[in-house]
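Deliverable D2.4 — example input (structure tokens):
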């Protein structure tokens, strides 16, 4: 059983910062891409940032220059540093990971339970 457990969300004023963490645990052979998505009320879930196992990153245009994704492969953990937060960043943030469980070459997508980020104006 694989679990992704997020932490670090909360309430912050506009211009503030937060750091989200997401740790994968369980029977894991390897992890490929990891990423953060968010979903605001009444909106579709959208990709915020993603990082490959080798460290290549990509970001949504709306967060470029403000958010930074990183990962620690030894800890099976992905981070998202959120700086210069805006009220429009308010959403539930979900982490995602493509994981190989070891019994085949197939990758499986796993999701965390979500962590609320609320930015007040």
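Example output (designed residues):
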């Amino acid at each position: 059983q694989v679990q992704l457990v997020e932490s670090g969300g909360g309430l912050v004023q506009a211009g503030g910062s937060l750091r989200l963490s997401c740790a994968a645990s369980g029977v894991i052979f390897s992890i490929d891409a990891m990423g953060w998505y968010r979903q605001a009320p009444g909106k579709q879930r959208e990709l915020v940032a993603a990082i490959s196992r080798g460290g290549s990153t990509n970001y949504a245009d709306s967060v470029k220059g403000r958010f930074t994704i990183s990962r620690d492969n030894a800890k099976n953990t992905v981070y998202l540093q959120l700086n210069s937060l805006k009220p429009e960043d308010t959403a539930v943030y979900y982490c995602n990971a493509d994981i190989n469980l070891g019994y085949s070459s197939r990758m499986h997508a796993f999701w965390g339970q979500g962590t609320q980020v609320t930015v007040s104006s």
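The mean pLDDT is 96.
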